[in-house]
Automatic annotation (TrEMBL):
Residues 2-257 form the CN hydrolase domain. This is Amidohydrolase. Keywords: Hydrolase. It comes from the Bacteria. SUPFAM superfamilies: Carbon-nitrogen hydrolase (SSF56317).
Amino acid sequence: MTIIGSVAANFTRDLEQNYATIEQYVAEARARGVDFLVFPEAAIGGYLSSLGNHGDTRKTSARSLPPAITLDGPELARVQSIVGDLVVAIGFCELGEDGETRYNAAAVLDGDRVYGSYRKVHQPLGENMSYSSGTGYDVFDTPVGRVGLQICYDKAFPEAARIMALEGAEIIASLSAWPAARTATAENLQEDRWTYRFNLFDTARALENQVFWVASNQSGTFGSLRYVGNAKIVDPGGNILATTLLGSGMAVAEIDVASAFTTMRAGMFHLRDRRPEVYGPITEPQGADVAWMELAHA
């Protein structure tokens, strides 16, 4: 059996406050026997203060951008000193090898080792004004199983999760700084249309790939963004095992990966029953673009 925890919390530019929040949830995780704990996107240094046409840029908002750190830098080392033998996934702004390029990134690690890292591939709205895009997906062997990482908007693209499932991912950690809708925002954020989408993507991605899905998210506010929380753990049948809903907190669930996979995949096994030979247009950008244009002008 493996106990999973997923965090909804607020992270800002104040690194010491971030470390204190990490310590708080690590202590709670230890008390509850958690083996794998997932923090949100941008848990070290916070996310962007705004998106869209008024998004942060290197030129106009250099002071407001999150600190860019490296995998071997003191910031992740500080996190490792806090987590000890607990396996953790956490998001941050990564500084590229050229010492200038920024990536929206995540890593899975414990106190002794970084098992792997990921740079966000799919960027929403004006995020590309601040970050460069990653180029692929990997799955990492860890003490809690084979773990895949993705960040926020990635969950809107079924190909991203499917690639990791095909590479043997048992658990996919989806780290987010997912806000409420910018216009016509619902008075009750739990009923907001962007909250609905966030939750729907989580259950759909878990079910279609028959994997455990761990969704973390920022909560509260930062800049012009109001986050919707709803950290959760979803089983391979698309069932939500635990959730924080809107508030800050930690969703915790006990899972049995081997037993769940045997049960869920005994009959309809989606990965086995694929028909890749008929999916050609999905991987042909030019053809897909033409089809989209024809649809748009129909």
